[in-house]
UniProtKB/TrEMBL annotation:
InterPro entries: 26kDa_periplasmic_antigen (IPR052022), SIMPL/DUF541 (IPR007497), UCP029033 (IPR016907). This is SIMPL domain-containing protein. It holds the Pfam family SIMPL. GO terms for biological process: DNA damage response. Signal peptide: none annotated. Gene3D superfamilies: Protein of unknown function (DUF541), domain 1, Protein of unknown function (DUF541), domain 2. It comes from Chryseobacterium pennae.
Length: 244
């Protein structure tokens, strides 16, 4: 009889403890679910303050020394032209000379490729400029046909545009995105009759830099447009708050 009473008592105690644990579990679960997650956006438009531009020129000759001497003459003409346009000498960088042997090739009667006899050397050199005088280099890149008119086989690339104060812009956007996210969270809490509690988590997205009003796609690792002088940067901040 006593054993039965003890068993019933133990069972009742276990039932009560189980209810207590279940109640705490439900309470903790509801507490973890009682949060708001919002994403804020920060953006800023700015103009590039650094430009890079490059071009290449080449010479062909069966004699390597002659080809190199001719290329050196072209290099001097290009350098003098650039400095005459107000480009500083320390902004002009010539690469090493790339030398390629050329061969006459043809397809035989069976359609097989045949490398024929040596036909000469092709020497190519690149010239590049990096400058904060964006407008001046832009004009130079547009009027580079003046070099071609001097008998130089010159190929020009499109300029690339950069911004040297990007770190400051990023800080401003983070502040703006955080403020935007918090205001959204406060509005959601207010509309639901609650108030914001502690900030539980903050996650920052990657910076995306595109041309303004463009249809460029955002990239998972971040987009960095260098083809446009005018730029628009954006960043997202995700905030998770407790709700009271």
């Amino acid at each position: 009889m006593n054993k039965n009473i003890i068993a019933v008592a133990i069972g009742a105690l276990g039932f009560v403890l189980g209810l207590g644990f279940l109640g705490n579990a439900i309470k903790n679960r509801n507490k973890s679910e009682n949060t708001i997650s919002v994403t804020g956006l920060g953006s800023k438009q700015f103009t590039a303050d650094l430009i890079t531009w490059s071009g290449s020129f080449s010479k062909n000759n069966v004699d390597l020394k002659s080809a190199y001497d001719e290329l050196a003459m072209d290099r001097k003409v290009i350098n003098d032209y650039l400095t005459s346009k107000g480009i500083k000498q320390n902004e002009i960088v010539f690469s090493s000379v790339d030398i390629q042997k050329q061969f006459r090739s043809y397809n035989d009667s069976n359609g097989n490729y045949v490398q024929g006899e040596f036909s000469g050397y092709n020497l190519t050199q690149n010239v590049s400029i990096e400058s904060k005088e964006v407008g001046k280099i832009e004009n130079l890149s547009r009027n580079i046909t003046e070099i071609i008119n001097r008998g130089i086989e010159f190929t020009s690339s499109s300029p690339s545009y950069f911004y040297t104060k990007l770190a400051t812009v990023k800080q401003e956007m983070i502040a703006s995105a955080t403020k935007d996210a918090k205001e959204r969270a406060e509005k959601i809490a207010e509309n639901s009759g609650s108030s914001l509690g502690n900030l539980k988590k903050a996650t920052m997205g990657v910076i995306q830099i595109t041309a303004p009003n463009s249809n460029e796609d955002y990239s998972y690792g971040g987009t960095f447009n260098t083809s446009s002088k005018e730029k628009e940067a954006s960043i997202t901040i995700k905030l998770e708050y407790e709700v009271n």
